[in-house]
Write a structure and sequence with these properties.
Blueprint lengths: L1 E6 L5 E6 L14 E8 L2 E9 L14
Length: 65
């Protein structure tokens, strides 16, 4: 079990407990900070931190299946 926390611009905030058998998808604004927290015997431990950067190109068409 880990906790995913996403903090972004304009008061964007998502916090979700994710189990080991789950797959979770998230759409967040550019510049958001994503943190993954895990359990430790002393409490919560920050395992990873990532920042969503601006893409190098813009997608102008969307396809749905």
């Amino acid at each position: 079990m880990v906790i995913l926390r996403c903090i972004g611009p304009n008061h964007f905030f998502v916090e979700k407990v994710i189990l080991s058998c789950e797959i979770y998808s998230l759409m967040a604004p550019y510049g958001s900070r994503i943190e993954i927290w895990g359990n430790n015997k002393d409490g919560m431990l920050l395992e990873e931190r990532h920042r969503l950067s601006q893409p190098k190109y813009e997608i102008s068409e969307f396809y749905a299946a």
